[in-house]
Amino acid sequence: LTSETIFYSLSMTLRFIILMESFSLFFLTTIPDDLSLALEKMGIPHDFCFAFTSAIRFVPDLALEIQSIMDAQKSRGLELEKGSFMERIRNYIPILIPMLIRSFQRSLELAEAMESRAYGALKKRTSLYELKMVRSDYMATALIIIFLFTMLYVKFFIKLP
Fold first, then answer.
1. N or C: which end of the chain has fewer CB within 10 A?
2. What is the pLDDT of residues 77-123, one digit of tens each?
3. Alpha-carbon torsion 86, 90, 91, 96, what sign?
4. pTM above the 0.90 mark?
5. Cα(92)–Cα(76) distance, rounded to whole angstroms?
6. DSSP states of 66-132 as a string?
């Protein structure tokens, strides 16, 4: 165990934490509809944007559903933490099956709702509001670009200990 391996491990751990926190902050502060509009404005097809934002909206519901199923199975006497590794994996099957069934039910409900609202009937889509860049958006973009180039300059041209 050398100081280099410790430094490398610490570096990778911090990178992972920063990455996870960045994604958490982004998805906690960004409205899915705004994200979808921004992606469409960048030229990404609407179907992909819709699938992506639907998945983002679906994750918290899925987490709550899994927790509810786990609580129900634990109340019936299921012990998830006992036994060997393979037994613990097998113990999760009574959670996996209801979760998959409920996920399929939700996706069918979403498909029926989309169908009843004539999703995809028209090629030209409209939106309730339009995203426009304002002065603060341009300033934030400029600051991010400056920060990015500064980090690249430091990484490639300045020798840090």
1. C
2. 888 888 888 888 888 888 999 999 999 999 999 999 999 988 877 77
3. positive
4. no
5. 14
6. HHHHHHHHHHTT--SS-S-HHHHHHHTHHHHHHHHHHHHHHHHHHHHHHHHTTTTS-SS---SS---
